[in-house]
Amino acid sequence: MIRSQRLVLAIAVLASFVAFLDGTVVNVALPAILRDLGGGIATQQWVVDAYLITLGSLILVAGSISDALGRILVLRIGLLLFGIASIGIAAAQDPLFLIIARGLQGVAGALLVPSSLALITSTFDGKARGRAIGMWTALTSTAMIVGPFLGGVFVDLASWRLAFLINVVPITVTFVLLAMLAHKDVRVPGVRIDVLGAVLCTLGLGGIVFALIEQGNLGWTHPAIYLSMSLGVLAFAGFLVRQRFAQNPIMPLGLFRVRNFWTGNLATAFIYGALGLSSVVVGVYLQEGAHLPATLAGLASLPSILLMIGLSSRFGALSARYGARVFMTVGPILAGLGTLWYLMVSRDFNYWWQVLPGVLIFGLGLTMTVAPLTSTVLGAIDHARAGTASAVNNAVARVAGLVLTAMLGVIVGGQLDLDGFKRATIVTAALLIAGGVVSFLGIRADPAESDDAFASSPRSQRRGPSRPAVSG
Q: What is the pTM of this model?
């Protein structure tokens, strides 16, 4: 790589690292937040979901914003917003202010990830681009290790507030590297931002999630609950209608005519919904139920993450050789069986035999799944639209985690005690196994068999420039 390419890669890694880091820190910090600010399980749900609502609903349109305004400018805006939101979280004195700041973080995160990848794809070509994206994926994955550990250390030794200021360092370094980069910003002419689609999507998800979280406090018959649910459903239906008729839709519905694409996204919804639910439940229960310090709770899932980092590329290569269907079938089912091991957890807690074997089995299953799943979803669509296809898949993953986290109170029965933990464990395992079954029934070994009917449709030809891939 030449100097400018190394700078671009470092900027892209650090900018995305910022967004991924806070997503892993928060689950370790939730019990401490509850002790400090109060609000019960609903506050914990909202602290997670406020971020996911804005991230999941805006990541689809963020690619268009990046194309229209310029990748470097959008990166700077995203970094600045993320830093401001992080300071706001650290200074929060009540749950509402904290939740609003988390929502702002989600807006910033939606700007950072697509813009980072857009910067890579506009700087690298051919095989060098593939290697650069591979390095981006590997390096940003370290946030999954660093986040829980550092978050736990700060919670145990100082304050949960400082855990959310960790990202100030990579944000500052990224701004310095951007100043060093003599790189002309790129704007794509003719790009239009579907503001109405983004607003409808955000309102739809927000209304539905509000009803799911607050129904435990107010009940389904309360006007605030059934009205917000109704308005949320109507707004999301309006978003789908908008995508059907918009000149430049942010989520082209025609993509879902492709069998491997819609099947892969359905499997994504089950698998990532399970991951979103499990990450919150395990992170909170190990502290509140098993009484582990935050540092050890943050390290509990480390073996599965190390498996993913060490073996993901290997399973990706095996998938390319033998086909993704077998890995997308066996992997989620194996992960589900590993999750069921957590049913061994008792009041006499022992991590080494009640949790660790399940973590290892779960990690192996997940490692078998992720690379084949992503490659199948992207491989189902022609390369010119791979960016849009991957943005849709990423949004599906985030929204699935959002909805399952919103349903946490219903799933655990209002309290995350041992019984609630086991109920959540069964639901998580069922979702993972369902993802494997969907893959077995729906995925075709030959991508040509998935019938990319959308490839030749007139509407597909009217679409603007494709956006860079965002790993699910």
A: 0.77
